[in-house]
Amino acid sequence: MVEELLKIELKGDELHRRLGGGIPAGTIMLIEGDRGSGKSIFVQRLLYGFLMNGYTASYISSQYTTVEYIKQMESLGYDIIPFLIRKKLMFVSLYPLLTGVSEKRKFLSRLFGEPRLWEPDIMIIDSFSSLLSREQEPSAVRDFLLYVKKMASLDKVIILTANTEEIDRDSLFVLEEAASMLIRLSVKVFGGDLKNSATIVKYNNAKGLFQKIIPFRVEPKVGLIVEIAAVV
């Protein structure tokens, strides 16, 4: 049985503490922001933290092929090859299906029609908005979110990323309402430099104290680093 709080702790990394010591089991997390705000980097850090603490995960990507994703993670110092080999991580690339597709397709129904994707402790879809913008069935989003809630009730953690430039406000509102944890990423000027910032807008069932605004930067071979100073 999965414990009440899923750990994401990495040595020398403050993110787990800033997020209250981990992510509560049963969380539906929405990470939203404009292009370039750091959504993929943030969720890649979460994934690696989960894997390093012994959990299993599925990761669906609309941006990377498998080889590209391995290289991207290696550039951050996150070696995922051992987890892929041991089948602790299931990586699925939708990039070939999405590239050059102009017509609408039934992507969401195909996702919850693949039960193996939902067997791991954590399910990540990056980016969910890319799939949503190509979905042809209006009812598919509702059906998919109902399925997500069912999976979360089994103590799984579901993480969706959304580019706010890709979907309309009404659809984004539906996602925000369904999420039990909402993190909004942005890039702000701080001390004369551009800084990435994660703002926790909603955090239901938090098990510990968390920091509402988490400034961070990304360094090659080191990964995501939480800044000490706050961004306001």
TrEMBL record:
Domain of life: Archaea
Entry keyword set: ATP-binding, Cell projection, Cilium, Flagellum, Nucleotide-binding
UniProt-recorded name of the protein: Flagellar accessory protein FlaH
Organism: Thermococcus aciditolerans
PANTHER family according to UniProt: FLAGELLA-RELATED PROTEIN H-RELATED (PTHR43637:SF3), UPF0273 PROTEIN TM_0370 (PTHR43637)
Record-level Gene Ontology MF annotations: ATP binding
Ranges of residues in domain AAA+ ATPase: 25-195
InterPro entries named among the record's database cross-references: AAA+_ATPase (IPR003593), KaiC-like_dom (IPR014774), P-loop_NTPase (IPR027417)
Entry-linked Pfam families: ATPase (PF06745)
